[in-house]
Amino acid sequence: MYWITKSCHEPELYLRWFQMATFLPFYRSHCSNNVEYRAPWTYGEPFLSIIRDFLNLRYHLMPYLYTLAWEASQKGYPLVRPLFWYHPHQMNLWDIDDAFYLGEALLICPILQAGAQSRMVTLPPGRWYSFWDDRVLEGDRQVELAAHMNQIPLLVKAGSILPMDLEKNLVLHIYPPVAGSSEYLLYNDAGDGCGEWRIDQFRIVRFEDGIELFWESQGDYPSIYEFPYEETVIMFHGFMPTQIWIDGREVDPQQLVDDSLKSLKLSAGSQFRQAYFKGAFL
């Protein structure tokens, strides 16, 4: 984001551009030697704390970003994609230049003007979840979304599995498909882009009373029998599980992360092949 800081004189705009840059491939903030000095800590609070939150979010999203970078090397797909990318025949999406996809799962709607507390967003077709509060939005229409200082409109597409890194744990955020099934590939290596690698393939299938999750792996990083995270956490959005079976065995409720049954924590050695979550869609 180095290019956007050269002309920034307002703390609010610096913050807004930092928020947008969190979801771009190139993420670097600095100033020029011929302008007023500015850095994330230049403007004090509350800007510094909000910037820190978005920087942490960037690190949490690293599994998703790293997989997108690998996908770009394999298929040539850009990490950042225009709204018409998945709907090229929908002409109203071709003129939108103030929102973008990051991969297939995330829709980013930046705030580009000082003082803005909301903005209009043209949603592509499909069902969308607010990343911040799980509010559900039906697509293929225009909506006005709130944009308080500590957030920007950030949406997740239904059917997505969004991987995040939280204290060396892999958190799989599952947003159920509206119907049918969807898949996601997670790529891992030693961080050098070459040598040993591992691909984890996840597939979710929606049924009337629950969700089935399949998990297959291939590759040799760090070993086909090892997982490069300490634990796996499954976090549901728009769904409340009440019973869980993993590889045909019902799971002891004591393994659940919290009493709401929204998430399930597994040790690194407990990778499963198939899990069924029975419950209610919200």
From TrEMBL:
TM segment ranges: none
Pfam families associated with the record: Glyco_hydro_31_2nd, Glyco_hydro_31_3rd
InterPro entries: GH, Glyco_hydro_31_C, Glyco_hydro_31_TIM, Glyco_hydro_b, Glycosyl_Hydrolase_31
Alphabetized Gene3D superfamilies for the sequence: Glycosidases, Golgi alpha-mannosidase II
Alphabetical keyword list: Glycosidase, Hydrolase
Entry GO MF terms: hydrolase activity, hydrolyzing O-glycosyl compounds
Domain Glycoside hydrolase family 31 TIM barrel: 10-68
Superkingdom of source: Bacteria
Glycosyl hydrolase family 31 C-terminal domain mapped to chain residues: 76-162
Biological processes, Gene Ontology terms: carbohydrate metabolic process
PANTHER family, A to Z: HYDROLASE, PUTATIVE (AFU_ORTHOLOGUE AFUA_1G03140)-RELATED, MALTASE-GLUCOAMYLASE
Homology family: Belongs to the glycosyl hydrolase 31 family.
Protein name per the record: DUF5110 domain-containing protein
Provenance organism: Oscillatoriales cyanobacterium SpSt-418
Organismal lineage: Bacteria, Bacillati, Cyanobacteriota, Cyanophyceae, Oscillatoriophycideae
